[in-house]
Design brief:
The protein has 456 residues and is an alpha+beta fold. It has helices at 22-39, 52-82, 141-154, 202-208, 221-224, 227-236, 244-247, 268-274, 283-317, 324-334, 341-367, 374-389, 399-408, 412-434, 444-453, and strands spanning 3-10, 13-20, 87-93, 110-118, 133-137, 157-160, 170-178, 191-196, 216-220, 250-262, 438-442.
Length: 456
């Protein structure tokens, strides 16, 4: 019977030694030789009639080594299961394990040792007692007006103009990095965009007035746009909105098209097109419906922000110790791509954060019996695909989308990623349901700053 011993190397880091004797591995070895004899094709012998002695002479050494190693591995895994040992990664064979010591000519006891990293013990914080905040944005009349005007413009009639003449004009433009004189950088990518004239600063609007298609100006993003528009445009152009030097970068902006949208009248045809699922007869009801939509949006955002806050709370307040030396060694040996100790060291903090959340979320999932169905995975993949297409008109028949999702379900990596997204959202939704947050009224601008704080 195999003997197994354990010894501590460091906290949560152990060595397990497995010793097997001939009585442990010989039965499997003899059985394997018989299978080889039954199936071997050896010249001079009929299939199934090869003497065991011949098979042993030809394949005995390899089969013997294979069966001894298999027995050691089986004994180790059975021990871990029987003792209910919670471990990280996989047991690591130590470097002094030498398969060359296994000799089928002289059966004897063989001892192999393995390093093991143990999962840490931890407790989940009492979320009901934790200090959390539900940040509620109040829907203002200004928000309603902006959304009404946006819909009137989006569903309005577009006409093409010869020259820029109105702050409501829509300019299709292209940007290319340049110097202050407008000399375009070699190989500079041309980036397209569509902007209302009123998005530009007053000075730039004045410069653009009267410009025609194919004309261009030289500008700096930091000076040419109002604050709100500058932030998202900087991102589109690959700039850091918080980096002053980035915002001083010059661009040649060329006008490729000038358009003007005649806004829709606030009539029943417009209401029906803007909100086809509702029966709206007048402007008052339309504005009320818009307000309800905005309130629903901000309520959803507040819940999402609460979940992010709880994610940070769980991550920071759930203390875990890790066998770091073991994990670094495990990462170095187990990765498919060749890794260097320097690369492992660099990525290790990120790896620990991910491991921390995996252990924590799995524990919550186990305690609360959280499950993810195939339909939920498919729905997540479908939403992800729809996100790629954005606001494109995809037409009424989306059978092709379901067919594409079915193909994605055959990709193990895609399915695993979708599973983790759905599972994490369920964990955070449960955690948020346990919290007793203090409600706080804030503005949309304050919410945006809070959201940026929680970006990962």
């Amino acid at each position: 019977m195999a003997t197994i011993s354990r010894e501590q190397i460091a906290p949560l880091h152990e060595r397990i030694k497995v010793t097997v004797s001939p009585a442990d591995y010989n039965p499997a070895y003899e059985s394997a030789l018989k299978k080889y004899a039954k199936n071997a094709n050896i010249p001079g012998f009929r299939k199934g009639m090869v003497p065991t002695g011949v098979v042993k002479k030809m394949y005995g050494a390899a089969v013997f080594t294979e069966e001894v190693l298999r027995k050691i591995e089986n004994e180790l895994m059975q021990y871990l299961q029987t003792e209910n040992i919670a471990y990280l990664g996989q047991p690591l064979p130590e470097d002094n394990n030498d398969p060359a010591q296994i000799n089928h000519a002289t059966p004897q006891d063989y001892t192999f040792s393995f390093e093991l990293g143990l999962k840490p013990n931890f407790s989940i914080p009492d979320l009901a007692k934790a200090k959390t905040t539900l940040s509620l944005v109040e829907t203002t009349e200004e928000m309603v007006n902006e959304e009404v005007e946006r819909l009137r413009q989006r569903l309005g009639k577009m006409t093409e103009l010869e020259a820029v003449s109105n702050e409501e004009d829509i300019l299709n433009v292209s940007f290319q990095k340049s110097d202050a004189k407008g000399v375009v950088e070699e190989g500079a990518e041309k980036k397209e965009n569509s902007l209302l004239l009123k998005y530009f600063s007053a000075a730039t609007q004045k410069e653009l007035m009267g410009k025609k298609k194919d004309e261009q100006i030289i500008l700096q993003v930091g000076k040419a746009f109002e604050d709100k528009e500058r932030d998202w445009l900087a991102k589109d152009l690959g700039l850091d909105k918080d980096n002053k030097e980035d915002l001083k970068q010059y661009f040649v902006m060329q006008i490729t098209k000038i358009g003007f949208v005649e806004k829709r009248a606030l009539d029943e045809d417009f209401f029906k097109e803007a909100m086809p699922a509702k029966e709206i007869k007048n402007e008052e009801d339309f504005r009320s419906a818009i307000k309800s939509q905005i309130e629903g949006y901000w309520k959803h955002q507040a819940q999402h922000m609460l979940e992010l806050e709880i994610f940070h709370l769980l991550s920071e307040d759930t203390k875990m110790d890790f066998p770091e030396d073991f994990l670094k060694k495990w990462l170095l040996k187990s990765r498919e791509k060749e890794q260097t100790p320097e690369a492992i060291e660099k990525d290790f903090p990120s790896f620990l954060n991910q491991l921390h959340w995996t252990l924590l979320s799995n524990e919550i999932g186990t305690q609360q019996s959280l499950q993810v169905s195939r339909e939920e995975i498919m729905d997540n993949l479908r939403q992800q695909l729809m996100g790629y297409f954005g606001s494109m008109n995809l037409g009424g028949n989306l059978d092709w989308l379901d067919s594409y999702v079915e193909r994605m379900m055959g990709d193990k990596q895609q399915v695993e990623s979708a599973y983790q997204r759905v599972f994490s959202s369920k964990v955070l939704a449960w955690a948020a349901s346990q919290a007793k947050p203090t409600e706080k009224k804030i503005t949309a601008e304050e919410f945006q700053k809070l959201s940026e704080k929680h970006q990962h």
